[in-house]
Amino acid sequence: MHHHAYLWTGPKARFDQEALRRPPHPEPPPAESRPELIQRYREVAALFPTSDLPPLESAYWLVKPRALVRGTWPDAKAAAAWLGDRLTEYAPRFASEAQRDDRRLTALITSACERLASGADVSLGWYLERPSYLFIALVTCSPNRLGSEFTCPVDR
After folding, report:
1. 94, 128 in Cβ contact below 8 A?
2. What is the band of 131 on the pLDDT scale with cuts at 50, 70, 90?
3. Position 122 pLDDT exceeds 90
4. Residue 140: pLDDT above 90?
5. Reduced to 3 states, what is the DSSP secondary structure of residue 6?
6. What is the mean pLDDT of the chain?
7. Neighbours of 7 (CB within 10 A)
8. Which residues contact 107 (CB under 8 A, 6 or more apart)?
9. Could you give the maximum distance between any two Cα atoms of the chain, in Å?
10. CA–CA separation, 156 vs 142, rounded Å?
11. CA-to-CA distance for 152 and 135, rounded, in angstroms?
12. Residue 140: helix, strand or coil by DSSP?
């Protein structure tokens, strides 16, 4: 078991494009469907695997391009330390002062380490200066609890 890190920052309006954050349905729409529905399905099917947008389910990071992996660690503590470094880096830009509180951030890092050690994923997000958004994920790999059929992006 190991852990991959992902980080996304960008406009909140782009983050809110949920159709591009969810995998396409396994079955395409029937041929007699409206042309715009068929076209939208094709668009999402082509864009989802390559988009840098955070997926709605953390396991789907594992189907994204390897280039999106920000780091890989066999140890939960090392992955949580990376998270701590990112929080230190971005906390001054958090929109809410309460989110910058050192005790709160330390508790997030401790919780993330425990969850990763148990084989769970960690997904966190913050509003930055408007209208920006920060999304950080640490995804357990080999295997992932929810996406055990996904191959490791680093091994591809």
Report:
1. yes
2. confident
3. yes
4. yes
5. strand
6. 94
7. 20
8. none
9. 57
10. 13
11. 21
12. strand
